[in-house]
Amino acid sequence: MSEQIANHTIFARGLSKRFGDFTAVNRIDFEVRAGEVFGFLGPNGSGKTTTIRMMLGLIQPTEGSVEVLGIPVSGNPELIRPRVGYMSQRFSLYNDLTVSQNLTFYGKAYGLENDLLQERMQNAVEMAGLVGQEKTRTRDLAGGWRQRLALGAAILHKPELIFLDEPTAGVDPVSRRAFWDLLYKLVTEGTTIFVTTHYMDEAEHCHRLAFIQRGNIIAHGTPDQIKAQNMSGQVLEIAPDDPERAMIVLRNAMQIDSLPLEEVSLYGALLHVIAKDMQIIKGDISSLLEDSGIKVEHAAVIEPSLEDVFISSMR
């Protein structure tokens, strides 16, 4: 094994997966370093889950290779699985079982027994904030608590690496933040985390990221590096009195090429407009909106957010 590979928890080169004529993952290269949170972002159907399944040895790549914890996955999944944890997109616990029953089931599946199993279960309950709820059926827990319990079950065996596939989908913002606090606690203890997510605020908390679209990695690096290297234009943030109508006006202008805009997106009560040479056309944008009867309360060129870069990259 080369020193370059040995310094990474995950090392993928030319990794591909085809299903008949459909290419789900197309010769991607990436590395995940030990002790980091690595974010894998892309729209639905972009290849995120297929990539995780190849890293877990659940499906074989069509071509290319991936090593996990220094072990080639192909032909050796049984050596890797005891050392990793996995939390799938869909809630993976049994709703009819209690908190304790779910943890007991998963603990025994990982080979834990007797005092060690009880100790790990207690740790999981405390980490999830479910002390006193051990006899509660899982289906009666709120979404955020269920996700914490699922994470607790996935780390009962103290894995070195955890794969999380959209773990906070459908969870409220407060619970999402609490979940990420748990993840960072695990990182301080030496765990490496590979996570897919649709939430840009979560992506900002990752040490490094990769954007994947249609099976191809189109951006890779820290959040700041991706913002610096993958933003083709500048962002004008506008506060109009009628955001939805303003968006329609500017998108129409973009479609007929009356203004050289690259993207117009709604951000709550604000608009983010992306274009090259924004300082030159900023006045034209404000004039168009005002001529359309839309009052512009504020307009300023700002630093792009990760969401701006993601939307621009996906386009």
Short characterization:
The chain has 315 residues and is of the alpha/beta class.
Give me the secondary-structure topology.
Elements: H1 3-6, E1 8-19, E2 22-33, E3 37-41, H2 48-55, E4 63-68, E5 71-72, H3 77-80, E6 84-87, H4 99-109, H5 114-128, H6 143-154, E7 161-165, H7 173-188, E8 192-196, H8 200-203, E9 208-213, E10 216-221, H9 223-229, E11 234-240, H10 243-255, E12 263-267, E13 270-275, H11 278-291, E14 296-302, H12 306-314
Parallel strand pairs: 3-8, 3-9, 6-7, 7-8
Antiparallel strand pairs: 1-2, 1-4, 4-5, 9-10, 11-13, 11-14, 12-13
Attribute tags:
single chain; 315 residues; alpha/beta; Rossmann fold; Alpha-Beta Plaits; 2 domains; six-stranded mixed β-sheet; four-stranded antiparallel β-sheet; 12 helices; globular
Class by SSE composition: alpha/beta
What strand line-up does the widest sheet have?
A: 6-7-8-3-9-10
- From the N-terminal CA to the C-terminal CA, the straight-line distance is 39 Å
**Mass-distribution shape:** globular
CATH fold-level name of the largest domain:
Rossmann fold
Q: Would you identify the CATH H-level superfamily of the largest domain? A: P-loop containing nucleotide triphosphate hydrolases
> What is the domain tally?
2
Reading the helices and strands in chain order gives HEEEHEEHEHHHEHEHEEHEHEEHEH
Total beta strands: 14
Helix share of residues?
25-40%
Q: What features would you describe in this structure?
A:
With 315 residues, the protein is an alpha/beta fold. The protein folds into 2 domains: 3-228, 3-Layer(aba) Sandwich (Rossmann fold), CATH 3.40.50; 232-314, Alpha-Beta Plaits (2-Layer Sandwich). Helices cover 37% and strands 28% of the residues. The strands form 3 sheets. A 6-stranded mixed β-sheet has the order 6-7-8-3-9-10, with helices on both faces. The two termini are 39 Å apart. The relative contact order is 0.12.
